[in-house]
Amino acid sequence: MFESLELLAPDAIIGLIAECRNDSRDKKVDLGIGVYRNAAGETPVLDVVKQAEQRLVDSQASKSYIGSAGPADFNTVMRDMTFAGSVTNERVAMLQTPGGSASLSVAAGVVLRAMKGATLWVSNPTWANHIPLLGEAGLEMKVYDYYNAKRHSLDFDPMLETLRAIPRGDMILFHASCHNPTGIDPDEEQWRTIADIVVERELVPVIDMAYQGFATDLDTDAFVIRQLASQVPEMIVCNSCSKNFGLYRDRVGILLIMTVDSRTRDIVQSQADNYVRTVYSMPPDHGAAVVSTILHDDGLHADWIVELEEMRGRLRDMRVLLRDALRTRAPGHDFSHLVRANGMFSFLGVSAEKVESLKRDHAVYMVDSSRINVAGITPTNVDHIADSIAAVL
Ligand SMILES: Cc1ncc(COP(=O)(O)O)c(C=O)c1O
Fold first, then answer.
1. How many whole angstroms separate alpha carbon 220 and alpha carbon 154?
2. 70 exposed, middle or buried (CB, 10 Å; 0-12, 13-18, 19+)?
3. For a substitution probing ligand 1, which of 184, 236, 240 has the most ligand atoms within 8 Å of its CB?
4. How confident is the model over 246-292, as pLDDT tens digits?
5. Are strands 364-365 and 235-240 parallel, antiparallel or unpaired?
6. Fold for domain 9-45+312-392?
7. Which residues form the catalytic set?
8. Any idea which fold 65-296 has?
9. Pocket of ligand 1 (CB under 6 A)
10. Could you tell which of 95, 127, 241, 250 is best to mutate to test the pocket of ligand 1, judged by most ligand atoms within 8 Å of the CB?
11. pTM given for the model
């Protein structure tokens, strides 16, 4: 049966992580893997998560099934954190999903039940898994202009031009904040202009929010969602708790489908529940129960905000640190975009050969596109990173 299949190369990022792990050089630095790290280079369990888990251990009475849409208490509190009242509740179908990835694939499954051959436009570039995941799900994938690699900035006018040419009724995916892989987000004025085109072209927005709270704060990072909620009849939001709660392996996310009215919401909810039943039946509960415990408790919620601020602040600080370290070592080169970007990622802006040399000659690991995760920078390794980059330039 399986003779017709070919052996595939390992996923590029997973392969890179393994290569770095097996590198015995003391000075090795991993700027590839897409997880948050503290100054000690660890991805710790948040204190509030530990506390919520303890409460669950003490109080949880059953591990019985919950249902395809996941727990209502999680869904409602996540809906409120996402929309903040910008849409009436009866228009929103909600499903807890195994991470943001499953939120995207369930969204695609439900969309394809409604519209065979639906087309989704994504930014060029976009998260490395968007096209494989959503294309494999069956959506027709197209790209719109987004990033100016020379200026390391949003290519705003060309972007608007492609958006204006998208056929009416197509779907368009935006990253709510902390664009992966560039870190470059539209500002609020630019989002308003983009939203007007979405309305004018009758596009259906799909918002991927994998980093709520990692750019500015929970509300500012959801700006585009709340802006669009008041302007469009339908919208899909995929929110992930992997990064902002550090719950990567527990697989927690939510799919929120904003529909035109409550009758349509009921239909979409029934279709989404039914779709999930045919795929993984029900989402894992533990991580969602942790998030719900935190968000429903004033004390834990306040502590979470502090931990989230710490993560966000560290990312900002590391961006400044690397920019400054490069300023003195590579005076002819401009790395100011590092501090204009949000979240964990930025393009360094060097060729694949230089990326290879950084790995081979300096033990500094990043993906081929020269996307770096600034969470891999620490005050201790920044000099080595900057020396290495300057050496290959
Ligand atoms: C833009 C974007 N969307 C979605 C995801 C999916 O996250 P997860 O499935 O781990 O929640 C990621 C993870 O890196 C991401 O960067």
1. 19
2. buried
3. 240
4. 999 999 999 999 999 999 999 999 999 999 999 999 999 999 999 99
5. unpaired
6. Aspartate Aminotransferase, domain 1 (3.90.1150)
7. 127, 208, 243
8. Aspartate Aminotransferase; domain 2 (3.40.640)
9. 34, 99-101, 127, 175, 180, 208, 210, 240, 242, 248, 253
10. 127
11. 0.96
